[in-house]
Amino acid sequence: MKASIKAISYYLPEGVLSNELIHQEFPEWGIEKISSKTGINARHISAPEEFSSDMAVKAAEKLFAEHNIDKSEIDFLLFCTQSPDYFLPTTACIIQEKLGLETTTGALDFNLGCSGFVYGLSLAKGLIAGQMAKNVLLITSETYSKFIHPKDKSNKTIFGDAAAATLVTSERGFCSIENFIFGTDGKGAENLIVKQGGMRFPVSSASEDVEDEFRNVRNDKNLFMNGTEIFNFTGEFVPKLTEAILEKSNLAKEDIDLFVFHQANKYMLNHLRKKIKIAEEKFFIAMGDCGNTVSSTIPIALYEAQKQGKVASSKNIVLAGFGVGYSWAACNLIVE
Q: Does 175 participate in catalysis according to the annotation?
């Protein structure tokens, strides 16, 4: 059975961390240097009492209002996050109640980061193909800012908080969801990690701050990212991922009108674009005003591409997510 993306909306928290504010706190980081290297001018930061479920609800409510969607028709809720409200209960259950979805609605969380949206599309398509649902609400929501040490200027510069809501349906949408490629390499798990907080390493007051060679401060309660290793990983696997999804879809690179990759940072994206030899006009970047929002980067970029008319003027689109895990996934869409 066919599955299509019907609509996308997203929510950004009110708090804004601009390059100017980062420069004030870390004078060695010039405003232009931050902007040119990362492609980010500002990031939105969740309020102290604002959590992933709160942002998810706001994104979903925007989706219902913007696109005139009847929430009673939602059969299944998929929620992607690595910053859940609780270990248990499932945050998707909390969102179901807050949104007032029918109690006949299925709901589950899945823990993935930068590849999460593409994985979510595959799960939604599977539910529809298996005739277990007709309308799936896929929500991505992250509050990575709550994992970042106040003196970790590197990660503070890159990551922002956001939530995106996508309706995947068995009816006609603006894009049909076609083929998928997945990949996993757990050897890279410790290169992007929040070590403390789970069962293996409970939060401990004994964790001490450590300053790296670039004077970024963090401890085991905070987000750690080995930027060099993450960059090397993407350079090795993303070109192969792109080639694989094209081959599976029986398409040539020239057949693709729009590539929407996980919006990691401008430097990495441009490196990948040049390595894969994608024309600049076919490679969409939309992270300047929100930063790297993890699982929400691709739906936010798709929303903005649609707003600019780039989706309507396309026929074939490729999405690719990659990062924490290591985990990667790609799919192709056909504009309807």
A: no
Q: What does the pLDDT read at residue 204?
A: 74
Q: Which residues of the chain, if any, have pLDDT below 70?
A: 205-206
Show the tokens assigned to 229: 């290793």
Catalytic residue among 114, 175, 290, 331: 114
What are the φ and ψ backbone dihedral angles of 263, each rounded to 5 degrees?
A: -85, 75
Q: Are 46 and 148 in contact (CB under 8 A)?
A: no
* 287 neighbors 301 (Cβ within 8 angstroms): yes
Please indicate whether residue 332 is annotated as part of the active site.
Answer: no
Taking CB atoms within 8 Å and a gap of at least 24, the contacts of 275-281 are 275/235, 275/239, 276/238, 276/239, 276/242, 277/253, 278/253
Interatomic CA distance for residues 249 and 2, integer angstroms: 16
pLDDT at 214: 73
Residue 130 has phi, psi (to 5 degrees) of -85, 5
Set 44, 262, 265, 290: catalytic member: 262
Annotation marks residue 316 as catalytic = no
Q: In the chain, what is the greatest distance between 2 CA atoms, to the nearest angstrom?
A: 56
Quote the tokens at residue 154: 């590197």
Residue 172 CA to residue 255 CA, distance in Å, equals: 22
Report in angstroms the alpha-carbon separations of 329 from 160, 192, 262.
Answer: 22, 17, 10
Catalytic residue, chosen from 191, 216, 265, 292, is 292
The closest of 169, 46, 115, 117 to 303, measured between CA atoms, is 117
- The pLDDT of residue 205 is 65
Pinpoint the alpha helices (H) of 26-90.
Answer: 31-38, 52-66
Q: What is the pLDDT of residues 142-151, one digit of tens each?
A: 999 999 999 9
